[in-house]
Specification:
It is a single chain. By secondary structure, this protein is of the alpha/beta class. The longest helix is centred in the first third of the chain and has 10 residues.
């Protein structure tokens, strides 16, 4: 019943209240054009969405995302257009290989996108996770990202613009040789970065992971690092 859904939504302080799927959307159709006023009555609500029926409810999904704080945690792998999700809080595009234009997502809080090749519009994303983005070469616009995860990004060699990132994961990014600009990063994970030879500039990093960095032989300057992982 719609009144039951409204009651469920009206729990004070609840951030994630449920799953937005096809059945739920069908029930919400009865609200129609009154979605905006409905949302104003429940300003703290964020909907958790594992949306498997995007193509069946595309227009309704678009209208919902435009007025409600929707937390989309996963979208279908065969999706091509993500413009409807411009107002979501967090979105995972992992394995969504058909998505080429993600400019609409430039203001989301959290974005996971595997195989990404262009991040030129993503400088405002707070948490950005880019696994297996092997064709990505330029990350110079990501210096304001709070938490940045680059995993298996073998074409990235220049990370000099990332010195102000708070939490930085450069996992198995084997083309990176120079990390001298990363001395102010709070938490830095360089696991598997086998081309790095010098880490003397990282003495002020709070948490430093150098596992499987097989080319590093001298860590004598890292005595002030709070947490240091050197396991191989």
């Amino acid at each position: 019943q719609l009144k039951d859904i409204a009651y469920w939504f009206d729990i004070a302080g609840v951030e994630v209240v449920g799953v937005l799927d096809g059945t739920f959307l069908e029930k919400m159709k009865t609200i129609g054009d009154d979605l905006e006023s409905f949302n104003k009555k429940l300003p703290n609500v964020r909907v958790k969405c594992t949306y498997k029926n995007y193509f069946q409810h595309k227009e309704l999904m678009k209208s919902w995302c435009e007025v409600v704080k929707v937390n989309v945690i996963e979208v279908p792998k065969d999706i091509t257009d993500v413009s409807a999700f411009w107002k979501v809080h967090a979105i995972s595009l992992r394995d969504c290989k058909s998505v080429s234009n993600i400019s609409a997502l430039q203001n989301v809080h959290t974005l996971i996108h595997s195989g990404c090749s262009d991040v030129s519009r993503l400088g405002n994303v707070r948490i950005l996770i880019l696994p297996d983005s092997t064709s990505l070469t330029d990350v110079s616009v990501l210096g304001s990202v709070h938490t940045l995860v680059l995993s298996g990004c073998h074409s990235i060699s220049d990370v000099s613009a990332l010195g102000d990132v708070h939490t930085l994961f450069l996992l198995s990014c084997n083309s990176i040789t120079d990390v001298s600009a990363l001395g102010n990063v709070h938490s830095l994970n360089l696991c598997g970065c086998t081309a790095i030879t010098s880490v003397s500039s990282l003495k002020n990093v709070h948490t430093l992971d150098l596992r499987y960095c097989t080319s590093i032989t001298d860590v004598s300057g890292l005595g002030n690092v709070h947490t240091l992982d050197l396991r191989n």
